[in-house]
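G., before I forget:
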Amino acid sequence: MNHKDTFEQDGFVAVPRFCDAVELQTLDVALARFIAERVPVLPAEHVFYEDKSDVGTLKQIQRMHEHDDFFGEFFEGKPKRLAEELLGEAVVGKNLQYFNKPPTLGQATPPHQDGFYFMLKPCRALTMWMALDIVDEENGCVRYVRGSHLRDMRPHGRTETLGFSQGITDFGQAADAREEVACPAQPGDLLVHHALTIHRADANASPTRTRRALGFIYYGKSASENLAAHEAYQTKLTTEMEVAGKI
Ligand SMILES: O=C(O)CCC(=O)C(=O)O
C-alpha cells in the first residue's frame, strides 16, 4: 500500500528514514543553536520545562518556524510536500515544535486528538512527528489507535500535563486497547497522523536516554479555523500556566 492509502485507512503512516544522516546532522546543529540562542528570548508560553528552574529539563518549544530562518525553510520544504500528498490538497504550515522527554522526568502524553486543540471545520489537518533519538517502549514511543480517525471526536477534559492540556476523558474503551499500535522509531523516521487519530505516549522510564523529536502541523486549505475560540483558549491557558507557576 502507498503512504496515502495507509494514512487514509489507519489514520497514521510511518515513513522510515524520512531524513538521512546528513540531514539529521544539519537539524541537530540548527536545534542546538536554536536552544542556545533563541530559547532564552522566546515568550514564556512558547517554551516548556519539566522544571522551569532547570534548563536541562527543556520539554517543548512551540512555533520554531517563526523564530528561525533555517526551521522556517525546512517547514516549507519536504514535510509540507508530503502533507499535501497525504491530505490531497494544498496545506498551510501552522506549527513546528520540539518535543523532549528528559530521562526519568519526561511525563506521559495523555491520549488526545489534535483536532480537539485545532478547532477546525472540516477537521482536515495532520501532524508529523520525526524522531531525533532512538525512541522505543522504554523512553515513551508514540502509540496510535488505528482507525480512530474514522470515528467521532471524543470528549476531552483538562489535564495537568504541561504542553498537552487536554486529554480524552473516556479513553480505555475496548477498541482503544485492541487497536493501539506502538510505533518505535529510529532517528530520522517520520510518523504522520490525521488530526482525528487518537494517540498517546508513556513517560520516559529510561534513566539515561532522552526522547527528542520534531513535530510539524499542517492544516488543509479547506479547513476553517475557529480563530476567536482558539485564541480565547490559548489566552486562558497561558494565564492558568502562569498562575500555577509552570511557565
Ligand atoms: O511527543 C509526544 O509524546 C506526542 C506528540 C503529539 O501528541 C503530537 O505531536 O500530536
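Residues 21-38 form the longest helix (18 residues). The two ends are 44 Å apart (CA to CA).

More on Monday.
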